[in-house]
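look at this record:
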Amino acid sequence: MSQWTSPAFITAIAARADVRLDSASLVAVTLLGAYGAQRPSDLAARLSTGASNISKIAARLQDAGLLERLVDPADSRAKLLALTPAGKQAADALAHAGQSLAADLVGEWSAEDQGELLRLVQRLEVETLRVAKALRNDAE
């Protein structure tokens, strides 16, 4: 997991898709692509970071032409961070790069082995969510 989440690995995979951003910006683009426009506080929660860091990331993405700030239709005092068309292209390229990476990693495995990996990763996800919920409950 440390390899997959390392900034060097993330930026190298993105570079294969010709998306050249710092790792935090790459993750932000990926999250905005997956979840759509959102308030900075929601993006901060998803990135497990603070508001000042989101402001810096948003500024870099805006300067790169990948992000725009929109008025929140639910509250005209609030802003939403949204991908521009170029940002959506970058998010799509990153998603494709991730799919290509998966094919590189397990493409030569048998269908049975690939199915077993998928089953185990899904099981790991369920257990991770269960433990995370228990940890949150313990913290309260």
DSSP finds seven helices and two strands in the chain. The mean pLDDT is 94. The longest helix spans residues 111-139.
